[in-house]
Specification:
280 residues
């Protein structure tokens, strides 16, 4: 495949109506980098073409470095990709936000927490957010995995300030991150924001908010959430029931807690503790 891509590029150069074509060049650079043919890919990055047939490209050289980075990221070669980023900067080019996002995701998958932190710090210097929903959601998840909890709400705010609507996964990541930061009340405030937006919550999100209620010993809000979950025809699982039992016990509502314990038995769910005292 990489040799075929290179042959196609060389063939294309013989036809003036087909060349220069920056799009074909970028695709070839990426394919060669993925196939560990970095030297050939690098030669194409430095190829001297004076025009581009891609009207959306405002900086062809930056795009070429980005394609080289993308190929190396696909090959899971983080160190080499970071060196390419530094090389681009030495030529005076700043890689795009999508390239930063790809590097952050790979660093997260490889458990390189310090690299993730450094890249996020650099990406924060961009005056405006130009990433798509999938990239931002993935970066938030990467930060959550790297235990960089404080970054997740910041990205969430950045996304909203850019005029975009968050998705349910974003909300869930923010809630769980705020909980890990010891900010249960801030996490619960996210629920009301979701309510105002008319978001459809799934089981994972309900479980996250119920965990908040347990932290706050707020059985009233927990019961309201449980009721809305049932209205949405979402079946509670063992974690939901156990959180309901805990929050009711913490709030002194033992009769209600017993109802949930009995409901678990009727649903034939595995029960960790048979007595309410064990949930306190």
């Amino acid at each position: 495949m990489p040799l075929l891509a290179l042959e196609t590029l060389l063939w294309q150069q013989d036809y003036p109506h087909l060349w220069p074509d920056e799009r074909t060049l970028l695709s070839t650079i990426q394919v060669l980098a993925e196939a560990a043919m970095e030297d050939k890919a690098r030669n194409l990055v430095m190829m001297n073409t004076t025009m581009t047939m891609n009207p959306s490209s405002s900086n062809p050289m930056r795009d070429r470095f980005g394609a080289l980075i993308c190929g190396l990221v696909s090959a899971r070669r983080l160190h080499e990709a970071l060196l390419v980023k530094e090389e681009a900067e030495s030529y005076g080019f700043t890689i795009g936000q999508s390239s930063y996002a790809e590097l952050i995701l790979l660093a997260s998958r490889l458990n390189q927490g310090n690299v993730v932190k450094n890249l996020l710090k650099e990406m924060g210097g961009f005056p405006e957010l130009k990433l798509g929903l999938e990239h931002v959601t993935s970066v938030m998840a990467a930060c959550r995995k790297a235990r960089m909890y404080e970054v997740v709400p910041s990205l969430f705010t950045w996304w909203k300030s850019a005029g975009f609507l968050p998705n349910v996964i974003m909300f869930e990541l923010v809630v769980t991150s705020l909980l890990s930061m010891g900010k249960p009340r801030d996490a619960l405030a996210i629920y009301w924001e979701m309510e105002e937006m008319g978001c459809c919550l799934d089981l994972r999100v309900y479980k996250a908010f119920l965990s908040v209620c347990v932290e706050l010993s707020d059985s009233t809000k927990a019961l309201r959430l449980f009721s809305r979950m049932k209205d949405a025809q979402i079946s509670p699982d063992r974690d939901v029931y156990e959180n309901m039992i805990r929050v009711c016990c913490k709030d002194g509502r033992f009769g209600k807690a017993q109802e949930f314990l009995d409901a678990m038995k009727r649903a034939d769910l595995p029960i960790m503790h048979c007595n309410l005292e064990d949930y306190i």
